[in-house]
What we know:
Radius of gyration: 28 Å
Largest sheet: 12 strands, mixed
Structural class: alpha+beta
Shape: globular
Number of helices: 10
Number of strands: 23
Helix content: 25-40%
Distance between the termini: 68 Å
CATH architecture of one domain: Sandwich
CATH class of one domain: Mainly Beta
CATH topology of one domain: Lipoxygenase-1
Amino acid sequence: MATELTQGQNCRLPGPRLEIRLSAGHPVIAGATLSDEDGRVPGPEWVAHPGSPIVPGLEAPRRAAAQHRLAVDLGAMPEPVCRVNVLIALLHGIGGPERFGGLPAPYVAVAGLDGTEIAGYTITGLDTESAVVALELYRRQGAWKVRAVGQGYAGGLAELLTDQGLPQARELAGTINEAVAEGMPRPVQAPPPLSAEGDRSRRAAAPAFGPDQGRTAPQDDSPMPPNGGQTPGGPGQPAPQPPAYPGGTPDPSAAPRPTAASGGPIDYSHPRRQNAAPPTPPPTAPPAAPGQPRTPIAGDATGWSMDERLYNQVWGMFEDLARTTAAYRGAVDFADSRRDKELEQLLSDPRSRIGGQGDAAREAARARHAQLVAQAREAFDRDLAQLTAEAEVVEPALPPAYARWDSPAWHAYRVPTEIPMAVRLGNLHLPEADPIRIPMLARLPLERGLWIDSGRTVGRTGPSDGSSAEAHALGRLAMEAAVAHAARLLAVHPAGEFAVHVIDPAGSGAGPLAPLVRTGVLAAPPALGAAGVADVLARLTQRVDLVQMAVRGGAADSLPPGFDTSQQVLIVNDFPHGFDDRAVNQLRYLADEGPAFGVHLMIVADREESSAYGPLLDPLWRSLLRLTPVADDHLADPWVGHAWTYEPPLVPPGSQVLQQVLTQVAAARAKHT
């Protein structure tokens, strides 16, 4: 029996060979995009559309129609492909309707080769949109799943492709519309049958899934979450802003494209590691018993190193929890609306308002509601149990950069020799799944500064009395959080690769700053007073200017002898106290230009205290990722917009781990210098 999906809901696919069926009630364009783990489409070669219908593992229709079938072979997808987005769009500039709002709700289904429908999804709620991502097929722990997306775009194909990171989105959208206008009728070929051995061999007579292992064809080669209003940068980096992988992560635009030839297999090796050995395969769990979920293990995700695999696994957990919670909430909302509608109909009929018949009907409506909610909760609890089991395995295996301060990983800490992929900024959780804590990871180097909000009421959960004592306590907590973030950044970088500066005009942060000062890991003592503020800002602004001119002029080797090229972070306490107009402008400059040239901000401030500057500072706040010193539900994910509760990574009371780690950092720094 087919699974009827609601928006955000997913289900496992039974096999790699599938057929996607689309029905829109009016001629539409159908196609698909292939993307990497960040959801990014590297180039036009990764898009199947009427003008270029074949990509490895998929063939799209070549003309507009009211009904479409797309042939898919997930087993033939190149290894870098982690997601397949199935899209539909109205014809642009060729006549006909300009939006889906006036048309019947499109329906999309996934079926097996025998025609049996696996899952279906009716895309409701469309209005001004003229292009829609209907389904997403995605790779998760070595298996493929399908997810109902239903994300519409009023800007059509150009906006949809732009949102997926395609650089030539507008040009490709025009090409697709031209191909549809010209018309290239050709039926979609059926997927080739499995060989007698049951492998995934492709045959020359069936090119729907690209070349076989003995031929090559033009294609690209490439192997995560969240900041909008503010989406978390890791679990979180909402993007959503898909950051480029540092160092060892492939850049699809730089990947060599195989050309049509004969006599050789496609080279799917890492585009930046052409001479390197293939990546170590992630660990695999023993096969599960029939009907039982697979036992989760740490590092069971794609990646070139355990660091990268754990990072991707954490992001997968974050996304899965977001999606399954959305499905549960949607199912409960549906049950509520159905019950309310049935009760409203009963009340509108005078014959059913009184008497035993009306009472029985009302009781039946409530029973149906309870049954639907129970079914939704059962499915939700099943997903939560799997995620809980995965979290219990993954959390103890995290390296120091990703681990909590109370993790045993810190007791075995040694100053690293390489920069990790990301750093933990805290925890994220949802009220329905309170026991599960997802690490909030931010990619390194930081792409935006941090704002530790010491305000009393803005976005804060729980009551506030607004007293000065509370303001002082929150200010101290905010500074302790900033110190914990700075200490972790120092600890996860090799000796000499990271430096911390502090501006504390009134000296109010002396207590929380003591661990940094006492161990000698700061680049200089905390700057005090207006003169100290001006001196530090002038030095860092000059540093950004020099690096910017050298980099943009292609003369990075012309920097002055002994120039410190390490990453820098500036902690600003009690902003805007001690800042004049010139200092404020310098701070804004560092926030805008600094991250690209190795200078990052960490501001501890109450936004209301800077209200005298008016809208002048609004760009500053928007450029920073807002964190808090206490639990706060201000972060949102990019998929379904959940309000995630953020918890800061404070050091446990009485723990000596911070002192021990900073002592090792200081010793390594002394040897380095």
